[in-house]
Amino acid sequence: MKILQYCQHVLGIGHFLRSMLIAEAFSDHELYFVEGGQPLPGFRASSHVRRIALPPLMMDPQFTALETDRGDVREVQEARQKILLDLHDAIQPDVLLLELFPFGRKRFQFELIPLLEKNAASAHRARVVCSLRDILVEKADAKAFEERVLKIVNRYYDLILVHADPACVRLEETFGRVPDIDPPIHYTGYVTRNHLDPQPHREAGRIVLSTGGGRVGVELIRAVFDAFGKIPHAGLRLHVHEGPFMESQDRETLRALASRDPRISWQPFSHVFLNVLAQAELSISMAGYNTCMDIIASGVKALVYPFPQNREQALRAERLESLGVLRILRSLDPNRLAAQIQEALSSPPPAPGRLKTNGAQETVRAIENLVLKA
Questions:
Q1: In this model, does residue 127 exceed pLDDT 90?
Q2: What are the residue ranges spanned by the domains of the chain?
Q3: Residue 197: what pLDDT?
Q4: Check: CATH 3.40.50.2000 for 206-346?
Q5: Which CATH class is domain 2-191+357-373?
Q6: 3-class DSSP string for the chain
Q7: pTM, 2 dp
């Protein structure tokens, strides 16, 4: 089976990492991974994953415009569209696996609609599958958004895969017209990294502070530094893992602040972050999909500060807090934050999870079944 998988990350790295975990699960198949965001430095995929890098396009931190470091945005768009269409001709895939679109990535329909049109007209039409995370970002005009999504999904798609456990969150909570979706919807469970066996030794007093890709979350790091200074415990150690896309000015400013406290160490981005969390007593982070999945898989105590620009991280954090997986930071006031850190350190570890977390393997099974039925 030949799979052409498309992933476009625009701000953080969560979409890329989740999609790559799914790609790595297709080890018995021929998989072509098309990535369209800023490359993640130092990342190495499994040998069976054939990576095709489109000229990168990103969103600015305000989500208002596309950015590129390759010159004119329009020229980059034209080049990307040609690469995708040529790939379809060359590979003749059995499956098109598109991450998020059309439930998101509207700004990339300039290349995805032509790809879907070409596939629909092909004598060897690939099955079209949407790879969808657990929670959608709210839209200013929900009615128009849902109408546009339905038009595309019902015309081109064969299957919608939701990478969530429906016992935790369901698609209809963030998309009101689920009954009007024609292709079947299948919940795969959450996509997590492999659980560690044996489990690394957990070090008392080790706190890991992270902000994913690093383009947002500076205010969280500053607040934790202020709060940490109010905790006089000499045995605590704060390990700050920088995001690979953190702005250089922010990085230098934060490193200077970290150097004022000998208990704080500044660490590079880790490609084995699950291991990092498994060795910590406490994690402090945002509440992105991948970070939350690493919290679940590692069993670490966790405090999360949801990205405030939309509902996605807040809703996920609320559901996981209700299950006892983590606790939400609802304020970055240093005194309150210091108290929450101390309370979390003195609390028992979270109970073993009840959520389904075999999402990558279930994705493979669902797509294999789809192709067999074709």
A1: yes
A2: 2-191+357-373, 206-346
A3: 67
A4: yes
A5: alpha beta
A6: CEEEEEECCCCCCHHHHHHHHHHHHCCCCEEEEEECCCCCCCCCCCCCEEEEECCCCEECCCCCCEECCCCCHHHHHHHHHHHHHHHHHHHCCCEEEEECCCCCCHHHHHHHHHHHHHHHHCCCCCEEEEEECCCCCCCCCHHHHHHHHHHHHHHHCCEEEECCCCCCCCHHHCCCCHHHCCCCEEECCCECCCCCCCCCCCCCCEEEEECCCCCCCHHHHHHHHHHHCCCCCCCCEEEEECCCCCCHHHHHHHHHHHCCCCCEEEECCCCCHHHHHHCCCEEEECCCHHHHHHHHHHCCEEEECCCCCCCHHHHHHHHHHHCCCCEECCCCCHHHHHHHHHHHHHCCCCCCCCCCCEHHHHHHHHHHHHHHHC
A7: 0.94
